[in-house]
Amino acid sequence: MDSVNREIISYLLRDGRATYQEIGQRVGLSAPAVKRRVDQMIARKEIAGFTAVIDPASLGWETEAYIELSYQGNVSTKRLKHDLEQIPQVVGVWTVSGDADALVHVMAASMAEIEKTVESMREIRNVDRTRSVIVMSRVLDRPRV
């Protein structure tokens, strides 16, 4: 990816609704040239898609936590996805190094809902233990890449 495409992506990360004309003025290209480059990046899967970024509080999600999840024995990523995508409060899951098998990002309306969500994780077959960290405040939240 060249430096112009990186600049285009930088502007799209800041404002996904920016027009090709606006981006072109910033990177020194015409609107059709920006569109061609964006279309090519989409075709090469360098841009995976476009989405709206919602303020979690507007959905009533005032509380968030990260839960380390450990299974008995080995667990596949397919199994992790199957087990956790059923829980609406789970907004992200990553496999990690260390003692835990996965790090699970949970957002909920209250501490009671976080607790209920963790309890539901503990009921998943072969889950050995959980360890929770509650988010007190978001200090830096960069656009997702």
What does this structure look like?
- With 145 residues, the chain is of the alpha+beta class.
- It has 2 domains: 3-43, Orthogonal Bundle (Arc Repressor Mutant, subunit A), CATH 1.10.10; 56-134, Alpha-Beta Plaits (2-Layer Sandwich).
- Helix content is 37%, strand content 21%.
- The chain contains 5 helices and 4 strands.
- The chain has helices at 3-14, 20-27, 31-43, 77-84, 111-122, and strands at residues 63-71, 90-95, 102-108, 127-134.
- The protein has a 4-stranded antiparallel β-sheet with strand order 2-3-1-4, with helices on one face.
- The mean pLDDT is 94.
Task: Give the topology.
Blueprint: H1 3-14, H2 20-27, H3 31-43, E1 63-71, H4 77-84, E2 90-95, E3 102-108, H5 111-122, E4 127-134
Antiparallel strand pairs: 1-3, 1-4, 2-3
Give keywords.
Arc Repressor Mutant, subunit A; 2 domains; 5 helices; Alpha-Beta Plaits; 145 residues; single chain; four-stranded antiparallel sheet; alpha+beta
What's a concise summary of this model?
By secondary structure, this protein is α+β, with helices and mostly antiparallel strands. The protein has 5 helices and 4 strands; from the N terminus they run H-H-H-E-H-E-E-H-E. It has helices at 3-14, 20-27, 31-43, 77-84, 111-122, and strands at residues 63-71, 90-95, 102-108, 127-134.
